[in-house]
Amino acid sequence: MTSPLLSEQPTTESLANLLIRVAKEDRLAFSELYESTHRKLFGIVYRILKNQAVSEEVLQEVYLRIWDKASSFDASVASPITWMATIARNRTIDEIRKNTLPDSEVDVDFDLIADDSMTPDDSFAKSRDLLKLEACLDGLESPRAEMIKAAYLDGFSRQELAERFGQPLGTIKTWLHRSIKQLQGCMNL
């Protein structure tokens, strides 16, 4: 029997519900969560490590952490996929720091990896910037704010966005380009 969740793109709400069930140690929910998200999370891990075997091992550890930490998920702080992507990214960075990768084609730009040691001033500035970004997103025409979030927070491809929003690929590219320009203008005020 196939879950209805597996037949379509998972929504933020459906993933949040699965995480709530996973927090209660529901193995079926965990299986559905894995089926709904493993491709996206593997992509995140693989883009950093560029090594399939190690990426697969790290992904297993990512899902163990998701299982263990599901009860700490807070939908008011982040979307489910963003929360899981953060776990994946942090676990991948830990793998790099352990320096256990074989000499391979790994070329990591460490300037792109966030420094977790923020000062209180940094934290305040980041909070202020996030509030401003939220206000700027609210200023976008509907459904463009949702599209920006899906593209840049949830990792949807342009093609996935075209399918989700029922628009031609060219329209999606134009909307994203214009929306980003509008956000940049708003953030620079």
Secondary-structure blueprint:
Layout: H1 4-7, H2 12-23, H3 27-49, H4 52-69, H5 80-98, H6 120-138, H7 144-152, H8 158-165, H9 169-187
Helix pairs in contact: 2-3, 3-4, 3-5, 4-5, 6-9, 7-9, 8-9
Q: How would you summarize what this structure contains?
A:
The chain has 9 helices and no strands. By secondary structure, it is an all-alpha fold.
Overview of the structural elements:
The chain is mainly α. The chain has two domains: about 1-105, Rna Polymerase Sigma Factor, Chain: A (Orthogonal Bundle), CATH 1.10.1740; about 120-189, Arc Repressor Mutant, subunit A (Orthogonal Bundle). It has nine helices and no strands. It has helices at about 5, 10-25, 25-50, 50-70, 80-100, 120-140, 145-150, 160-165, 170-185. Helix 4 crosses helix 5 and helix 7 crosses helix 9 (about 170-185). Residues about 1-5 and about 115-120 have low confidence and may be disordered.
Can you give keywords for this protein?
189 residues, mainly alpha, Rna Polymerase Sigma Factor, Chain: A, Arc Repressor Mutant, subunit A, 2 domains, 9 helices, globular, disordered N terminus, RNA_pol_sigma70_r4_t2, sigma factor, RNA polymerase sigma factor, WH-like_DNA-bd_sf
